[in-house]
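Readers outside the structure-tokenisation community will struggle with the description of the input data as it stands. What matters is that the chain and its backbone geometry are given together, residue for residue. For illustration, here is how one protein appears when written out as sequence plus structure tokens:

…
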Amino acid sequence: MDATVVCIEQTKKSIQVEPRAAWFPRGSQPTVELSGQRDWTCLLGAVTDDGECFFSRFTEYVTTDHAKHVI
């Protein structure tokens, strides 16, 4: 059977912000909550089992249709 494994991940991030210094424990996923931030972007990334990568930015929420298009 000839197949390619593709893993995809989606995240939403605030943009155009001025974060201050912060401390995060080693091994944790750093996130900074910013009150009042209204501008954001969604990122969709994919990587195949042979190392090919794809990333795309969206101004709307990422849906199943977006993910299907990536695959």
Remarks:
- The beta strands are 6-14, 40-48, 53-58.
- The chain has one helix and three strands.
